[in-house]
Amino acid sequence: MPIDATQPYNDSNIFARILRGELPAKTVYEDEFALAFHDINPQAPLHILVIPKGAYVSWDDFSARASDAEIAGFVRAVGQVARDHGLVAPGYRLLANIGVDGHQEIPHLHAHIFAGHPLGPMLAR
Ligand code: AMP
């Protein structure tokens, strides 16, 4: 079920639980501002999620409330993960689903990195 991204942050969500160490994750990168781990249900040969460590529901919430350091840290973490996995030359897809129409299911901001084969044209059906 997609979530309403206008609701306040609820720290019982799955990614908050991963950040607290209550649920396992296949972590590939971590720093002060961000955590990256493999998606549990990969939609491409490589499918990684990058999340900010702060409590933000969506891109909108993050861009409005996060500090400059948090925003820079998250953006740099996404780039670092892509470089660490050798994705710059072959390319990759970066996606954030927001709210109901975006079919966001987990109410903690996350960027999907899809890679590992030609991904085809973007579908926005
Ligand atoms: P979204 O529709 O953008 O909210 O995507 C949520 C993503 O989180 C989906 O691709 C799920 O497969 C993924 N996911 C859900 N639970 C877990 C988990 N415990 N560990 C890793 N990925 C997860």
Task: Write a structural description.
Helices cover 24% and strands 19% of the residues. It is α+β, with helices and mostly antiparallel strands and 125 residues long. It has a 5-stranded antiparallel beta sheet, covered by helices on one side. Strand 1 and strand 2 form a beta hairpin. The longest helix has 17 residues, at 68-84. It is globular and about 40 Å long. 25% of the residues are buried. Adenosine monophosphate is lined by residues 14, 23, 25, 39-41, 49, 97, 103-106.
Topology, element by element:
Layout lengths: L13 H6 L7 E4 L3 E5 L7 E7 L6 H7 L2 H17 L8 E3 L15 E5 L10
Bound molecules: adenosine monophosphate.
Adenosine monophosphate (AMP) binds next to loops.
In short:
The chain has helices at 14-19, 59-65, 68-84; strands at residues 27-30, 34-38, 46-52, 93-95, 111-115. The chain is an alpha+beta fold and 125 residues long.
